[in-house]
Amino acid sequence: MDEKWNHFDEAGNAVMVDVSEKAVTVRTASAAGAIRVNAEVMDAVVHGNVKKGDVLGVARVAGIMAAKQAWSLIPMCHPLCIRKCAVDFETDEEKLEIRAISTVKVEEKTGVEMEALTAVTVALLTIYDMCKAIDRGMEITDVRLLAKTGGRSGDITYG
Predict the structure, then answer these.
(1) Per the domain annotation, does 29 fall within a domain?
(2) In the chain, which residue ranges form alpha helices assigned H by DSSP?
(3) Number of domains making up the chain
(4) Using alpha carbons only, what angle is made at residue 126 by residues 88 and 116, rounded to the nearest 5 degrees?
(5) Which residues are annotated as a binding site for substrate?
(6) For position 116, which CATH number holds?
(7) In this structure, is residue 53 part of a structural domain?
(8) 12 falls in which pLDDT band (50, 70, 90)?
(9) Among 43, 88, 129, 142, which one carries the catalytic annotation?
(10) Does a structural domain hold residue 139?
(11) Is residue 61 helix, strand or coil?
(12) What is the pLDDT of residue 4?
């Protein structure tokens, strides 16, 4: 079987990748995504008037908690001891868009791309959940990996 398909054994069965022989290195990953909202949601989030509370504060905590649980959500994802996880937001009132950015850091044998992507996705889902009474037409977009460091493939920045 082609070596790039490392989540399958010779018989085609799904397996967790064996990282026992890999070196422990410092690894980071950053991811981003956005949610498009209407003007009423943007105003309520920016001015703290959402009835369910501090939307971005709750979304930040949800994203951090989600990064720590990526292994339990994604099959074959290794449980990692996360050393740092940050989730930040940028609001663009003109474009009616809230952008989430996460950065995750570990000292491990495997990378943290899944954790960074999970943090962003759950943070955006939390914004949706807290604001859906105002706008059910919100759209989560552009979730992607921005960069990763460490490991065999080294440092990579994505477009």
Answers:
(1) yes
(2) 39-46, 55-68, 70-73, 113-131
(3) 1
(4) 45
(5) 76-78, 114-115
(6) 3.30.70.640
(7) yes
(8) confident
(9) 129
(10) yes
(11) helix
(12) 59
> Nearest 5°: CA angle at 151, between 100 and 18?
105
pLDDT digit string (tens) for 78-131?
999 999 999 999 999 999 999 999 999 999 999 999 999 999 999 999 999 999
Structural contact between residues 52 and 130, judged by C-beta atoms closer than 8 angstroms: yes
Does the active-site annotation cover 92?
A: no
Tell me how far CA of residue 101 lies from CA of 37, 85, 96, 142, in angstroms. Answer: 17, 11, 17, 11
Query: What distance lies between CA 87 and its chain's CA centroid?
Result: 9
Asked whether residue 18 is domain-assigned, the answer is no
Residues 6+ apart with CB under 8 A from 137: 38
Determine contact, residues 131/37, Cβ cutoff 8 Å: yes
Q: What is the pLDDT of residues 136-158, one digit of tens each?
A: 999 999 999 999 999 888 899 99
Mean pLDDT of the chain, nearest integer = 93
- Cα distance between the two ends of the chain: 30
pTM: 0.91
Q: What domain range includes position 115? A: 25-148
Q: What is the CA radius of gyration of the chain?
A: 18
Joined tokens for residue 63:
């994203």
